[in-house]
User: Fold these one by one.
Assistant:
Number 1:
Amino acid sequence: MKIMKKSMLVSLVILLAFTMLLAGCGGSETKPAANKDAAPPDIQAIKDRGVLKAGVKIDVPKFGYKDPQTGKIEGFEIDLAKALAKKILGDENKIELTATTAKTRGPLLDNGDVDVVLATFTITEERKNSYNFSDPYFTDGVGLMVKKSSGIKEFKDLNGKKIGVAQSATSRKALQEEADKQGIKVTFLEFGTYPEIKAALDSGRVDCFSVDGAILFGYLDDSTVILPDRFSPQQYGAASKKSNTALAKLINDTFNDMKKSGEIDKLLAKWGLK
């Protein structure tokens, strides 16, 4: 009798253990398997959305310019955005372009309205504290455009004159440092867009239109001249949100691959920037 009870007890223990084992197996079947191919969260978010959001200029010929006739935005930096879209989504046309200015570039990134800014964004140590920047893809210098009739031939001739610059741009700081170095006095008027500065130059509200040289060439006409002076080298980079480290690495790796393959040089030549 005791042997029978002992046998039944052993059987119950075995049955209970077997039941628990089955339950455990059932639980593992319902647990979703980890996706080894899943991208980092910041890149996966773009993949899930199906479109790369890029902040670009629409008033800078050759870099990012919206053709008033066609409404199409084209330029060197637009082609860079397309290259990133192709890398992430496999299709260069899966991009959503948002017009940005020197003043709105940062807020667009901060608010998550865009994934990347490709908008003649000069890399500075101060800006690197707030955003991730790629290695430079273009280097320029602050230039000066004046009316041919003004008689202004070089920077020192701007003593006592007004210079038009873009809001939040680095041009003002560079020119003020140069003015202090040369011992001349200049004043600045800030504008929201480059066409506004050009209009101010044409109307005589300012004596000089100053921004990076390559941008100035897009506004050159028969009545104006760009002086040979260049100040404070300006290196453009692609900016992304500080927390999006995987995206920043992908952007940088993509551009460096394009440099090595010669694709960047081809795009610069295509837009007359080389």
Note: DSSP finds ten helices and 14 strands in the chain.
Number 2:
Amino acid sequence: MTWETVIGLETHVELATKTKIFCGCTTAFGGESNTHCCPVCTGMPGTLPVLNEKVLEFAVKTGLSLEGEITRSCKFDRKNYFYPDLPKAYQISQLYLPIVRRGKMPIRTPSGIEKVIRIHELHMEEDAGKLVHDPWLDETRCDYNRCGVPLIEIVTEPDFRCAEEVIAYLEKLRSTLQYLGVSDCKMQEGSLRCDVNLSVRPAGSRELGTRTEMKNLASFKAIARAIAYEARRQVELIEEGGRVTQETRRWDENKDATFAMRSKENAQDYRYFPEPDIPPLELSEAYLEGLRGQLPELAEEKMARYQTDYGLPEYDTQMITSQKALADFFEACVALGSDPKQTANWIMGQVLGQLSAKGIEAREMHLTPPTLSRLIQLVKEGRLNRNTAVKVFEAVFDSDGDVDAYVKAHALEQISDPGLLVAAVETAFAANPQSILDFKAGKKKALGFLVGQVMREMKGKADPRAVNEAVLEKLEKS
């Protein structure tokens, strides 16, 4: 029998506000345990929550970018459950009137699948704390710093059929959130976490199978592996005559498998009721229009503009807009007068290469647009050849050093004296007579060897194009 996998996602996004959703505590990541909390975010008796207006703004902007319906009159609810990382034994969330409903996001996968993912809802809520296990003492302790950090939860319909579609959606969602400025989406810090609801059914069937939920997956690699394992596990279980149990499962990265945690709760298990301490929210059309006017140009819009305005290929624009900070860097370089295509080449080659090697994102690099623009200008003026410019780039990348000072200090400026070039060619030819004969015998690699020898004589400071022309001219006369 052929089986079909059906997947829906619940994505939790920590918002980039400076303070928590209902109090003035910092949302800064890290810090000594239990130092970023107060009586409000830990739910002490007699305290009252006050909604952070920025949280509402970020939620509405996200909803507008997802083409969702904004709930003009919405409210918060209490979700009751008992767990050590939730000191007040309930979470303030939204069940009955979420801030956004019925959105959508078009996706396109690397293999060419195009579809629209339906967004069931987006709601605001507070994050819980964190349990930290000490293996030396064999104790688990609570860190409440994360309690009250603002979240939006984005819930899709079960529209995904494979991991490739899931990853394409999450990559686009992350890009959108970063361009909006509502979250840094650092998965390694828990700013973007995903719960995967998965079931299988016979191909062609319209009836959904029993689903399981895999909680808090925090990397695209883990999500793809977990989907592959869980789909295979369910198919094998059914084919062996068993039944899938609706439950929450934990992904074990080391064992490359999922394991049951608890039976899956339903809404009634949480005993939701309206949050009595926060009044309902009434959003005016003027408020929504004001936020619509603040929406930035997103990645796909930038891609189209770069292709139209600068004549860049689609691949170039995809790479440049893959990170908002990278697109901002590109535009700043172009604004300083750098050629768009040359700037794109440097970003796709050297900048992304260094970011990958150092394991950082564009927003974390020290290199600034004026530094790269100056390097591009020196190559354009013929004062540096491309190979030398790359070495200079690598030397100044971490410190954003002075390009001109580095070139001067290391005597790297390109030699343009025709006499010196002729002398270097003569020396290389005199030292390598066999290469000349090889070239005349049709061995084209000999040309590259001779060019390399001349560049060596010039200590890498010559224009490779000029060297190539000089070598060819000399070979024709030999």
Note: DSSP finds 15 helices and 16 strands in the chain.
Number 3:
Amino acid sequence: MQEKVYIYYTNDLHSNFDNWPQVTGFLKNAREAREAENQACWLLDIGDHVDRVHPIAEAFMGKANVQLMNDVGYDFATIGNNEGITMAHEDLHHLYDDADFQVVCTNLHSLTDDAPGWLHSAVQTQTESGIKVGIIGLTAPFNAFYELLDWHISAPMQELERHVAELKETTDIIILMSHLGLTEDQEIARRFKDIDVIIGGHTHHLLRSGETINNTIITAAGKHCAHAGEVVVTWDHNRKQVIDKKADVYEMATLAKDLNTEQTLNELMKKADDMLGEPIIELKTPIHVKWFQHTEIMAKLTETLKEWTEADAALLNSGLLLDQIPAGEVTLKDIHRICPHPINPCVVELDGDELTEIVRASLTKDLTELKLKGFGFRGEIIGKMIFAGIDVKTSWHDDGTEYVKAIYYNGSPLDTEQLFRVATADTFTFGRLLPEIAKSEVKDYFVPEFLRDLLAYTLRYKITSAD
């Protein structure tokens, strides 16, 4: 006798609720269809469901996301870095207190005295016919951030060594919910042949029909729930083994919306607006934002960053502010709309030569006009770099390109061998946007504050209502 086990999943929603009513309808209908056929079915989320870029996630600190997942009827979830490192310790500690689903994150550990009551290192479940399923969850080890928030992420491979061996003895099918990224998932499949299914996320990859390595099928459904995924595992009761695995994804935009979910989102949005209605300042005239020009608001925000981090110098890109700050009452909602990025302040240690290279790179069109997606940045382009603590003198070549003539620190030419503590957005510590920052051996991150918290402070204390 053969039996099919169905797993439906989402990953990397990032609080992008545009397709959420369709996702809800799809998942509910899938479950109803499977239950009508008396077939086993589970609903999973692979993390980064919460993203504080959205006002609902910001106002409710992720708890509204959990409510929406409860409404769908999820069975299991793991956490992504957006749940893990964009909230204060207590906010994550209580994020899933009211979850109707089990949260499995095998490599998340609290550095305080108590672990959250919702946290499971691994879980086991079974079908009505007795097929035993083991589920593991792993999240990406951004310990430079996690440990500042009193969490630790243990090495994924070490956790797998222990838990896969244990589950192999007690279960028939092993499923890994992996918020590690495609490359890591492929390596896991090569090393752990006893894992039957890896459902992935984090790197926003879309595997329409899955990818098989050794005995493991790997799948993922992209980002923002433009797609939701399905995995079908066929178990042979006579042979007592898995005989087939298939994966597929389904496009959400064209599906019918769940009207109750749409109404819930509208209600949550209204509540979020009220919750973010705290006034910051009353402006007589708007504050204009310009991505390619020096503006007073960006200069003052960069000064705030330097002072708040007690750095020698600071630099911020003008593209961080997405819109002008309107005249009249400015609220937390306005601040969130204008600076929605989950980006933390960071201080790196650089010598004068490295700082000079960063200033030069920041003037190039390649950087200022770069349309960046990712690394916490939720805007359009990088924009003009603004500095505090250093005085940058520039001029123009005949071809219209800007270049650095001189850089001064405390009124004297920049000493190329002197070490400086330079504050900036943590965005630049990743990838190769500004390699000198990314390669710095000293990186001090400031959490849980975001740059928008510094923007609110700047407006409160450095801008007058007449400005």
Note: DSSP finds 15 helices and 25 strands in the chain.
